């Protein structure tokens, strides 16, 4: 027996403002039924002693600590720039937006 009927798919399509043909309604009813069956199988396997998780493997932070370090001065950073304006890189306008 199907867990989701063709009429339920038609109702969902109306709510979603989707125009589906009769063949599409049958096709999606079959697909949604398979999805519901798969979720039911997962629910059967899930045990109460298994804690919920968002990832299969534990996550660890692999980034270095955020520390203040010596960096380039504005003159050093802009030294090789082809064009500079107000201590910033000057680049050509590409979107035609007004400044």
From TrEMBL:
Keywords: ATP-binding, Ligase, Nucleotide-binding, Protein biosynthesis, Transferase
Pfam families for the chain: GatC
Record field: catalytic activity: L-glutamyl-tRNA(Gln) + L-glutamine + ATP + H2O = L-glutaminyl-tRNA(Gln) + L-glutamate + ADP + phosphate + H(+); L-aspartyl-tRNA(Asn) + L-glutamine + ATP + H2O = L-asparaginyl-tRNA(Asn) + L-glutamate + ADP + phosphate + 2 H(+)
EC category: ligase
Matches recorded under SUPFAM superfamilies: Glu-tRNAGln amidotransferase C subunit (SSF141000)
GO BP annotations listed: glutaminyl-tRNAGln biosynthesis via transamidation; regulation of translational fidelity; translation
GO molecular function, one term: glutaminyl-tRNA synthase (glutamine-hydrolyzing) activity
InterPro entries per record: Asp/Glu-ADT_sf_sub_c, GatC
Its EC number(s): 6.3.5.-
Presence of the UniProt keyword Nucleotide-binding in the record: yes
Gene3D superfamilies: Glu-tRNAGln amidotransferase C subunit, N-terminal domain
Transmembrane domains' residue ranges: none
Keyword ATP-binding: yes
Residue ranges of coiled coil: none
Role: Allows the formation of correctly charged Asn-tRNA(Asn) or Gln-tRNA(Gln) through the transamidation of misacylated Asp-tRNA(Asn) or Glu-tRNA(Gln) in organisms which lack either or both of asparaginyl-tRNA or glutaminyl-tRNA synthetases. The reaction takes place in the presence of glutamine and ATP through an activated phospho-Asp-tRNA(Asn) or phospho-Glu-tRNA(Gln).
Subunit organization: Heterotrimer of A, B and C subunits.
Name of protein: Aspartyl/glutamyl-tRNA(Asn/Gln) amidotransferase subunit C
Species of provenance: [Actinomadura] parvosata subsp. kistnae
Gene: gatC
């Amino acid at each position: 027996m199907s867990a989701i009927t063709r009429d339920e798919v038609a109702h969902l399509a109306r709510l979603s403002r989707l125009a589906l043909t009769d063949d599409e309604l049958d096709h999606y009813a079959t697909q949604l039924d398979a999805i519901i069956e798969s979720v039911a199988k997962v629910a059967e396997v899930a045990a109460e002693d298994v804690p919920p998780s968002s990832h299969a493997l534990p996550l660890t932070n692999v980034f270095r600590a955020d520390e203040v370090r010596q960096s380039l001065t504005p003159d050093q950073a802009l030294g090789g720039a082809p064009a500079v304006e107000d201590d910033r890189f000057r680049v050509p306008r590409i979107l035609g937006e007004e400044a």
